[in-house]
Specification:
This protein is of the alpha/beta class and 326 residues long. It has helices spanning 3-23, 28-40, 54-63, 80-84, 118-130, 165-168, 182-197, 210-222, 227-241, 248-253, 260-276, 284-295, 303-307, 312-322, and strands spanning 44-47, 69-73, 85-90, 95-100, 107-111, 132-135, 138-141, 147-152, 173-176, 254-256, 300-301. The radius of gyration is 21 Å and the shape is globular.
């Protein structure tokens, strides 16, 4: 890929990032993680209080991307066939015809995924992990461009079905979003008033084609990553599995370390972060910038550490401090 093409792709993604930030105010971290997941061919789990534009963020992204979008509201009475589709009998022909469900879109918003029972969650996670959906004795492939952003509300746990750790591992990143600051709240008010009065219409933005997206993904994979960075990533992963190498205090905090999926996700996300930042190589800073979102949902803490109020982010901070940059 020529430098001119890479420069054009990078500029297009910067325009995309800026455009989303104009509509989603006060959540730059969420915007960047959406683009990282898109570039890394992964899925995103977003957790935060209601009203923080989680739904609007992926909707704005879908408007700027060539492809289809569908929102699925997860509820306790949802059935697997409600998202995958099912065979419908046609009496005029005497045959069963498959009616595809909403999962067969390019971008999926799985709203409040923990409100659906395990069978529904498993149907979605099969599509995410295996790239296919099982209908009876058949397996139907997903689109080449397929990304899921699932949301969870941390404030309400009654009547929910928490995702098991093994299923959480299917998400490339787990992103926490918080309330915007006072300045951002003022900007949100102004934006809502402008939209209500239809004043200052947003500039026309040329949607990103799927061909350009796949080219950008290839550029990310081609980005230079030194062997020392790969070693650093592996050492960070191994620190969660063999924490006693860095002291008994850390060992008492961790019950189960992260999986090999974390190694792959950390590498892919670090590459995407470097590329999105306009660099042509991956640095330790890129790894450290994404490690919390990659490890947060995969690291299982010891009961004693949780009782003392420790969080996965606290332990990840310790790991970063313990593991030397190679």
């Amino acid at each position: 890929m020529s430098e001119q093409v890479q420069s054009q792709l990078s500029a297009h993604f910067q325009d995309l990032k800026n455009h989303i930030n104009q509509h989603i105010i006060g959540q730059p971290h969420l915007t960047e993680r959406l683009l990282l997941a898109l570039l890394s061919d992964g899925h995103l789990l977003v957790e935060g209080p209601p009203g923080l534009a989680k739904t609007k963020a992926i909707k704005v992204l879908s408007d700027m991307l060539e492809g289809s979008f569908h929102r699925i509201q997860f509820t306790p009475d949802l059935l697997p066939s409600d998202i995958t589709g099912t065979d419908i009998y046609r009496p005029e022909t005497g045959e069963f015809v498959f009616q595809s469900g909403p999962i067969f879109h390019n971008l999926i918003l799985a709203d409040e995924i923990n409100r659906a029972p395990a069978k529904v969650q498993a149907a979605l996670l099969e599509a995410m992990g295996e790239g296919q959906v099982s209908i009876g004795k058949r397996s139907l492939p997903m689109e080449k461009l397929f990304m899921v952003m699932a949301t969870q509300n941390p404030l309400e746990q009654e009547g929910t079905y928490p995702l098991p750790e093994a299923q959480l591992d299917r998400f490339m990143m787990h992103v926490n979003v918080n309330y915007p600051d006072a300045k951002s709240e003022h900007q949100i008010l102004e934006l809502v008033e402008q939209e209500a009065m239809q004043a200052n219409p947003p500039p026309v933005f040329s949607p990103l084609t799927q061909q350009d997206l796949f080219a950008a993904r290839q550029a990310v994979l081609d980005l230079h990553m030194a062997d020392s960075i790969k070693t650093y990533i592996v050492e960070l992963v191994m620190a969660t599995r063999e924490p006693s190498r860095y002291g008994e205090e850390l060992a008492r905090c961790i019950s189960i370390g992260v999986s090999p999926r974390a190694t792959i996700a950390l590498s892919r996300c670090a590459r995407s972060h470097a590329w999105l930042s306009g660099k042509n190589f991956v640095s330790p800073a890129d790894v450290q910038a994404v490690i919390h979102d990659v490890f947060r949902h995969r690291l299982i803490l010891d009961f004693e550490a949780e009782a003392q109020g420790a969080t996965p982010d606290d332990i990840i901070d310790q790991i970063i401090n313990f593991v030397p940059v190679t």
